[in-house]
Amino acid sequence: MSRSESLVDRRHAVVPRGVGQFAGDLTVDRARGALLVDVDGNELLDFTGGIGVMNVGHCDERVVAAIREQAGKLLHTCFHVATYETYVALCEELVGLLPHGGPTKAMLVNSGSEAVENAVKIARQASGRQAVICFTEAFHGRTMMGMTLTSKTRYKLGCGPYAPEVYRAPYPRLFHDVSRRGEQDFVRDQLASFEELFANLVTADQVAAIIIEPVLGEGGFVPAPFGYLRGLRELCDRTGILLICDEVQSGFCRTGRWAAYEHAGIVPDLSTYAKSMGGGLPIGAVVGRAEVMDAAQPSTLGGTFGGNPVACAAALATISVMKELDLNARATQIGDVLRTRFQRLAERTSLIGDVRGLGAMIGVEFCHDRDAQRPAGDALTTITEGCRARGLVILPAGRNGNVLRVLCPLVITDDELERGISTIEQSVLALTQKTHA
């Protein structure tokens, strides 16, 4: 038995099966940049980035140094007990990078789920309303409110009852529009359909917030059309509803901007972050208009470990590295390469129905005969296994598990990027040839 097999067996003996295992029997001993090394010493190229966490790469020296320095200075006091430098400095950095239309404030938590929970609490207190509208295909976490807002039933089987006063609208997925309208007509009709919720489900004056991922993450890497996001912003301005953008997976350079909503030229009232913000350590944030953030009553926000000093130091170093390396520009370059190569690959196989995304957040949807109504999750499973055998780790996304998502570290070298794309091409074409044999 290999060391990897032994470690996985030990996992099964003590860890409950409810803790998901998305990459089979994969193990890891150490990592650097865009490379993983398993416990047997095998090197693998990482196109998952810890599910969107490692934009600055695994174990960046500057991030590790900041962690070590802070760990020797202050591990914890709780920000509710004593104010410390790294928390305040990180909030200053966040409001500078992500201004929300004027005076802006930020608060820190441990994860994306906590960021979403707190954003909803803030929105309810600021608006004096209770209802929240979310979207199909959304993923907002596994806590009670996060799980309720999350669409995919796989993540909440047997976990109800869910939080009340949550309503769901269809996410604007242009590729799945069977009428094949142009984008402008599609957006117009989707926004009109959205407003019907106010007549059929909940009145606008009861809605505290609309929460949307500008690019669906687990839902299949689908960017919301910019016109749709602008329409939501106008609707919120008109009705007094607060707009929350969940940027947990799309934020911090992944799409070529600090936040994906910037592509649409809008500013939300609140936005949530985590994942790549911490360079590998658990930390999240809610950023928003100061008057909205300050509407929350004292002691209704926060938590014991929120904005831990070491995690804050890691985040500050991570943001510094992102600026120094201009990872927004690098994400755009990576995305251009990925999109071009995947579109060429789509010309060689009828299994690829759509190539889409923003910056380096690129998704490839696999469908039989390019038909959006015939998802090919089975094919992507085989392709994923083929990539793994060739030394590349990838993960699927989407309701039907038929979207290949790329979340490679943005510090990936050109040679590593080429190797990863070539591996995907080989795995896809090998399946295509086998199918047609």
What report would you give on this structure?
The chain is α/β, with parallel strands linked by helices and 437 residues long. The protein is 39% helix and 16% strand. It has a domain at 64-324: Type I PLP-dependent aspartate aminotransferase-like (Major domain) (Aspartate Aminotransferase, domain 2, 3-Layer(aba) Sandwich). The protein has helices spanning 3-14, 49-52, 61-71, 85-97, 112-127, 144-149, 183-195, 197-200, 226-239, 290-293, 309-325, 327-346, 377-389, 414-436; strands spanning 30-32, 35-37, 43-46, 104-109, 131-135, 166-169, 207-212, 242-246, 270-273, 284-289, 352-358, 361-366, 392-393, 395-397, 403-406. The chain has a 7-stranded mixed sheet with strand order 4-10-9-8-7-5-6, sandwiched between helices. The model has no long low-confidence stretch (mean pLDDT 95).
| Helix-strand pattern | HEEEHHHEHEHEHHEHEEEHHHEEHEEEH
Number of helices: 14
Output the CATH homologous superfamily of one domain. Answer: Type I PLP-dependent aspartate aminotransferase-like (Major domain)
The termini sit apart by 36 Å
Quick one: how many beta strands? 15
Task: Describe the strand arrangement of the main beta sheet, using strand numbers.
Answer: 4-10-9-8-7-5-6
In CATH terms, what is the fold-level topology of one domain? Aspartate Aminotransferase, domain 2
